[in-house]
Amino acid sequence: MKNITRYSRQIVLPEIGVLGQQKLRDAHVLVIGAGGLGCPVLQNLAAAGVGSLGIVDGDVVEETNLHRQLLYTLKDCGKSKAATAAEAVLILNPDVDVTVFSEFFNKKNAFEIIGNYQIIVDCTDLIGVRYLINDVAVIKNIPVVYASIYKFEGQVSVFNYKNGPSYRCLFPETESLKVVPNCVVSGVLGVLPNTLGAFQATEVLKIILEIGSVLSGKLLIYDGLHFQTQLVDFAKNPAAIEQGSRNGLKIFNQENAELKALDREAFLEKCRQDNCLVIDIREAYEEPKWKGSNVVNVPLVALENYCSQLDKEESIVLFCQSGQRSRLALAYLEKEGFTRLSHLENGIQSL
Questions:
Q1: Catalytic residue among 183, 271, 276, 307
Q2: Are 144 and 137 in contact (CB under 8 A)?
Q3: Is 183 a catalytic residue?
Q4: pLDDT tens-digit readout, 304-328
């Protein structure tokens, strides 16, 4: 492990040591939201030596952010938060691998963004996004380290940790939750998100290192104005878990369907990629013909035998006249274990 001197003051802790520091180096953490909470989370995780960080935020830096979002300066106003945060993190610790997602987290990109990250840190301020994060995390079986802030107060918890309670167990979805104000409406003490973000980072490190007591099934409530804390226990609700699972599966199926069904532009782009095999599953007599260096004609009846010789990790695009046969072929190849499949949604007649 390189740069051992940098982390020597935490390596000396018997609960961490060299092996613990290596766990941090090998960890993959996704931070959703690079605002008031996300900035201190990123600063602390990078400084601690967490090896891979993903940053998700489609917003840009504004001057009103600067009293609490300490990764940014006045010259950053108008720039992407995710990209600017990544630059600041790399200045803080060049050994960290940072992936930037300069987009808002939504149903269309949720599963693709989360990918193989091991922990999600929820630094968002929208109730709907929190439920989305919860539902995807339940399907992926990933712990979520949550925090929220309001004026002088904040709260922290860890959801979906080792089959524990989820966000929905603590906050059942109701109409009234959708009108909870954010700091734009209600205001916030600048130091508050930095305090709560440090709490979140602490929980992330404990999860990675497998030390201490994680805030699973517990909600820490912090009152900065009167310096009071309260710890509230809450239980796992099987009905809430089931609801999150149903929602997550629905989102997964929708996202997969969208990714696998190509429109005209996406199909033409695939045809230009040398590492992609494009298979015309029409009969040889069908018109119009579609030529290309990576295009082969394999009628549907011969597809099973042809694909038995292919690498199941190969990128494959299927097309037919209307999209019906290619959809059928895609479903068959999925069952056979092929993992990188797509098809021209409305067939060659749509071009």
A1: 183
A2: yes
A3: yes
A4: 999 999 998 899 999 999 888 998 8
Q: Mind listing the pLDDT tens digit for each residue in 132-150?
A: 999 999 999 999 999 999 9
| Contact present, 329 and 298 (Cβ < 8 Å) | no
Q: Which two tokens stand for residue 261?
A: 């069904």
State the catalytic residue, choosing from 169, 271, 307, 320.
Answer: 320
Distance CA 271, CA 318 (A): 11
Mean pLDDT, range 69-88, rounded to an integer: 96
Domains and CATH numbers, the chain: 8-247 (3.40.50.720), 263-350 (3.40.250.10)
Instruction: Determine phi and psi for 169, rounding to 5 degrees.
Output: -65, -35
Tell me the pairing of strands 218-223 and 261-262. Answer: unpaired
Phi then psi dihedrals of residue 315, to 5 deg: -80, 120
Distance CA 9, CA 28 (A): 22
Quote the CA–CA distance of 52 and 97 in Å, as a whole number: 5
107-130: per-residue pLDDT in tens?
A: 888 998 998 899 999 999 888 899
Residue 320 annotated to the active site: yes
Q: Which two tokens stand for residue 313?
A: 């990790």
Answer whether residue 185 shows pLDDT above 70. no
3-state secondary structure of 267: helix
Burial code of 209-229, b = ≥16 C-beta within 10 A, e = fewer? Answer: beeeebbbbbbbebebeeeee
pTM over 0.85: no
pLDDT given at position 48: 97
Beta bridge partners of 341: 316
